[in-house]
């Protein structure tokens, strides 16, 4: 994705839709900062070129090689923060596993069959029980209101 020399003063919000990008060039733009989260979800990004005044997103530890030449800073080879020397596995709750989510970002994915808040729920959502209780309550309340309010309705 070549966005070089596009007179960008900030990272466009539409960039969040390009998470499948492998190469991204932002050089020759008057960018002053890269906001945190600009590259969240960019798990396939292998080469990012930014103006030399900017740092690589996630810092130099998130990339295998960072080089600076006259017109750009090249961030190459996104590292997987989950299998590095910094033990991030403890950040994820029990019944989940660490997964990369862009340069310098991780996400915790629930192991199967766990789901929900902190992966504490096991199995699937009880659709029949929920639907049965909701349906019964709705019908009961409707009949009660129909029966009590029927006499107040005037016929022409």
UniProtKB/TrEMBL annotation:
GO terms classed as biological process: positive regulation of osteoblast differentiation
Domain EGF-like as annotated: residue spans: 108-119
Transmembrane segments: 125-146
UniProt keyword terms in alphabetical order: Membrane, Transmembrane, Transmembrane helix
Highest rank taxon of the organism: Eukaryota
Record flagged with keyword rRNA processing: no
Record bears the keyword Transmembrane: yes
InterPro entries: ATRAID (IPR042350), EGF (IPR000742), LRR_dom_sf (IPR032675)
SUPFAM superfamilies documented for this protein: L domain-like
Protein name: ARAID factor
């Amino acid at each position: 994705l070549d966005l070089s020399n596009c007179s960008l003063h900030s990272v466009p919000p539409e960039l969040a839709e390009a998470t499948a990008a492998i190469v991204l060039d932002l050089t020759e733009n008057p960018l002053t900062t890269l906001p945190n989260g600009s590259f969240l979800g960019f798990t396939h990004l292998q080469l990012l070129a930014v103006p030399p005044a900017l740092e690589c997103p996630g810092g130099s530890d998130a990339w295998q090689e960072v080089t600076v030449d006259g017109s750009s800073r090249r961030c190459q080879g996104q590292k997987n923060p989950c299998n590095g020397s910094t033990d991030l596995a403890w950040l994820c709750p029990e019944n989940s596993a660490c997964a990369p989510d862009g340069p310098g970002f991780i996400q915790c994915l629930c192991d199967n069959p766990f789901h929900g808040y902190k992966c504490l729920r096991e199995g699937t959502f009880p659709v029949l029980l929920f639907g049965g209780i909701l349906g019964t309550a709705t019908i009961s309340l409707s009949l009660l209101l129909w029966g009590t309010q029927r006499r107040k309705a005037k016929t022409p």
